[in-house]
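Homework help board

Subject: predicted structure for assignment chain

Our instructor gave us this sequence and asked us to write out the predicted structure in token form, then describe one feature. I got the tokens but I'm not sure how to describe them. Can anyone check?
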Amino acid sequence: MRYTPAGRDSLPLALGSYHLNYGSPTTRQSEAEWLTTWNDKQWTNPDGIPVRVPALLGGDNNSYPVPGTPGDPPLPELDRIPNRPHRLHRSIVGPDGKRVMDTRPDEILRTAGLEDVARHLAQTNNDKTAVAPTVDACDTHGPDARIDRIYASTLLLPAVTQADVIDMTGLSDHHTLRLRLDSTTLTDLLNQPQSTPA
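My token output:
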């Protein structure tokens, strides 16, 4: 898409909505790997120079962020999840042969230059509201968790001003993520000369 206030010659954006597989950590890994290709799209600017198009992707990851962000809900303890199939759906076999919670999609997307905008705000602005849970604790699936996330190419991070979670209790079992970008900064970023934004 084109952010029209930035002008006709500005860098376009790749916007995507996704839903990673509910029941298969193996499929989620593959899906996350395919999502990374949206951070590798090329466009030729008006000067004839090929540039990489920045991406903004959001969705239900059905997995967890890598721990360590201030304010992030802790990873569930596998043996405290009452629903045994759900234990399988949300875990993988670790290097030591024991099951651990699945954080691979987060690691894959961040390795490819896509940053979790909530993590970014928590780490740079100490905004712990950005990493609020997007699903509430329940008897079968375990504690509060941040399953839904928005990822942005690093080029776009200076424009990120806020990410928050809108309570959808009674309407959905997931809460809604909202991201705000500064229009002036976004316009500047999409108009700066560059050959390989990521």
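Reply (TA_rk): Your tokens look well-formed. For the description, you could write something like this. The CA atoms of residues 159 and 185 lie 5 Å apart. That's the kind of observation they're looking for.
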